[in-house]
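The data are quoted verbatim for reference:
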Amino acid sequence: MTQTPQPYRPPSDSEIPARYRRPRRQVSWIGAIIGLVLGIGGGLFFAWYVSPIPEFDNEPWQLTADAKADFVVAIMLRYSQDGDVGRAVQSLIDLRLSGDPIQTVADMACSLASTGYANNVSGVRAIRAMMSFYQPQGRTGCADSLIPADNVAATDVIEITVPTNTPTLAPPATKTPTPLRPAGGSPTPALVIVPTSAPQSDFIYVNATTFCDANASGMIEVYVYAVNGATGIPGQAIRVRWDGGESIFFTGLKPERGAAYADFQMEADRSYIVDMPGRADPLPQPLVAVPCTTPEGGRAVISYRVTFREA
């Protein structure tokens, strides 16, 4: 006997298990919160460590503490070149240093003199530049006792007294006669002036390379490094000379490009001689601002990257 199929009847609520009778939510708030946290964290990690955006056009007061210290060194070395106290003070005010800005320079000099910063010629020169700024303003710091005074200039001479008690032969008639001695016969000491040897260059020219970039057309980019070739030295004077003029600019005044960096804008079809006045000899060849073709096929003026290193 065949069984007649029964028509389909939906199950009643009492027949459906309780776990299936719960109303379904359109959004899982826990999952949304977890996804939001992971998204924000991943975005910050990418922006900070994987592909950070380079900073540019920063104001001096926005620099980090270490970058501010480098900036102060650059200001002081510029002051040692131009002697403009008002300009130096205004630059310090622009940094928004806490307290008395001149005393802050003395405190920074003390901190630098107490570390390995003073273990090379450039470091000592920078600290002395700071001392020459704050000392006339009546400020003091521990650098005054840690760094010896630089009293002997490069043009000073050494006086050596040589007694002439050794008998000398009479010079030939064609020579200059011997100076007369005073009565009494005692020999007169002769004063011999022996100039000090010429100072050695503090820096040496390493190389100069060219590049063609429409966004940096006709630039001379200069980098000045410590003896290790990697640590940039701020506040170093760079001189560029051309027919009818010259310009002096300083490293470290564009912190976003590094402490070693300085640049100069050339004019097309001019030749330029680059050196570090009193610190390094001029480049062996002038840098000529000639036209060039960029990798994208555009036209620009050739640019140069010049590197100096501490000797």
Summary: The first strand starts at residue 157 and ends at 162. Residues 151-199 have pLDDT under 50 and may be disordered.
